[in-house]
Amino acid sequence: MKNRTAWFIKLWNEFDSSTFGLGECAPLEGLSKETEAEMDSLLASLELKINNQAIELPSSGFSALSEINGFLLQYQLTSDVSSICFGMETALLDLANGGVRTLFKTDFLKGVPIPINGLIWIGGLDYMLQQIDIKIKDGFRCIKIKVGSLNFEKECDILQYIRRKYYREDIVVRLDANGAFKPDEAMFKLLDMSRFGIHSIEQPLKPGAKETELLCKQSPIPIAFDEELIGVNTTGERKRLLEKLRPAYIILKPSLHGGLFACQEWIALAEELKIGWWMTSALESSVGLNAIAQFTSTYSINLPQGLGTGQIYENNIESPLIVKKGQIYYNQLTNWDLSSIFPPEKESEEVNN
């Protein structure tokens, strides 16, 4: 992936267009139920429905998401269009809190950081080893490595390199297979990789694989779900899936998993079943990442979150979000610069005849 396409929802009161709420809709092609090709028409249809309508803004705070969910359902916005739900939730929360990119008033906005993992992108062996050393030097104590696309022996070499150089107590290693393992080889690979003290492995099998339930029970490495949760849209379906498969963790991306309200429900179900969780961005810009970070900070955080993806962009939206020493901060002394998505209007020039 070389480029990332995002759509932005801007909501304002007709009497004060200078104050507006901002939300990001960024489906991931190949994973999201909504495709990039249909986003323009989906958002144009939504615009026709809600423009010039009387919308009661939600109350501030955690309970606001329930109010927003009721509003979205009036306009047939469900988890089938997760990225649009997320964008609308964000824009409404932002507008309700003064249109200053504040969604939840938590200590995160006062500078309290959120621990995050450092993501190691797939590449050649030397490139990946270099990334690992850089991340650890930068202060990350949890790293996440994509596996399943390289030669398995080389991937084990990478893990062995980490464990020879860094103590297990100092560096936590997460793996993400993105469904790349074949059912008949998954257990062998998990057994082999387990000798390196792996915290968890994300989605070893493709979503819906019949072998997943047994693998969750027998795997020597705790299994986490991500893609497995996509398209599971009702409370009953979510509960049945977690009760049946019993993963060790679920990894939540609002743009893919139904929006913020749906993630709130996923978390409640997971905690009821003693299943761990953490939040991850789906490669959103600073606008979406800010919303996810603020939502995450409404919880007591026990594990590093996946909120460091904003660093990969060459032209990200300038924001108060700062990644430093394996944590993400909100620097109140830094202003948002939205000129890249809302260019300032040029003053009209008088033409003399």
Summarize the structure.
The chain has 353 residues and is an alpha/beta fold. It is 34% helix and 15% strand. The protein folds into 2 domains: 7-96, Enolase-like, domain 1; 107-330, Alpha-Beta Barrel (TIM Barrel), CATH 3.20.20.
How would you describe this protein?
By secondary structure, the protein is an alpha/beta fold. It has 2 domains: 7-96, Enolase-like, N-terminal domain (Enolase-like, domain 1, 2-Layer Sandwich), CATH 3.30.390.10; 107-330, Enolase-like C-terminal domain (TIM Barrel, Alpha-Beta Barrel), CATH 3.20.20. The chain has 10 helices and 12 strands. The strands form 3 sheets. The protein has a 7-stranded parallel sheet. A 3-stranded antiparallel sheet has the order 3-12-11, with helices on one face. The termini are far apart. The model is unreliable at 347-353 (pLDDT under 50).
Mean pLDDT: 91
By CATH, the superfamily of the largest domain comes out as Enolase-like C-terminal domain
Q: Please tally the helical runs, counting DSSP H or I stretches of 4 or more residues.
A: 10
Strand order of the largest sheet: 4-5-6-7-8-9-10
Query: Spans of 5+ residues with little confidence (pLDDT < 50)?
Result: 347-353
Q: What is the structural class?
A: alpha/beta
Q: If you consult CATH, what is the topology of the largest domain?
A: TIM Barrel
**Shape label:** globular
Named CATH architecture of the largest domain = Alpha-Beta Barrel
The major sheet is characterized as: 7 strands, parallel
Task: State the distance separating the first and last CA atoms.
Answer: 51 Å
For this structure, the quaternary state is: single chain
